[in-house]
What we know:
Helix content: 40-55%
Number of helices: 9
Strand content: 5-15%
Distance between the termini: 100 Å
Largest sheet: 3 strands, parallel
Radius of gyration: 29 Å
Order of helices and strands: HHHHHEHEHHEH
Amino acid sequence: MGEDSTRGDVELLLRVARMYYEQHLTQVEIAREVGYSRPSVSRLLARARDQGIVHITISHPLEHVLSVEKRLREALPLKAVRVAEVDGTDVIGAVGQAAAELLINSVSNGQVVAVGNGRSIQAAAQRIPQIPRVDCTIVQLLGSIPGGLPSWGRDAPTICTRIASQLGAKVARMPVPFPRRCGRSCASRR
């Protein structure tokens, strides 16, 4: 068993590995091509991995995000977590997209969903596709801010209406004004 034998062995391992992993031939097809049995081809592929000729890597760009989500679920009493990955400067858009995906994956028929207000909640509402949920109700979690915020589209009633529209759900509004910050007028009322 000289150098030629070792070289020939490596050449066979390379050939079999390339046919399997790059050309996507089955082990039966490779066996026919190289003149070995299918179990022999299986052993050759195992040797190629053992000798470092073949390196199998499993990865995806979301792998880090999924890992962070898993650690959060393990560390906190959360049933569902979605971490937003931001490409560029649209942080609110990325958070809104992640929240919309989580909502769609979490809400099932007959559920009640309580919704607050704000830019990130508005961004989520804008990104929810039309996906009907039977007998769902979208409930306003907070009161409304008087004085024009509905025109901004970030107040709770406007957001609830948008989400309900996309899910084919009912809306339950809370007719309670959002508390204003107290200044002297609140102190003088006491």
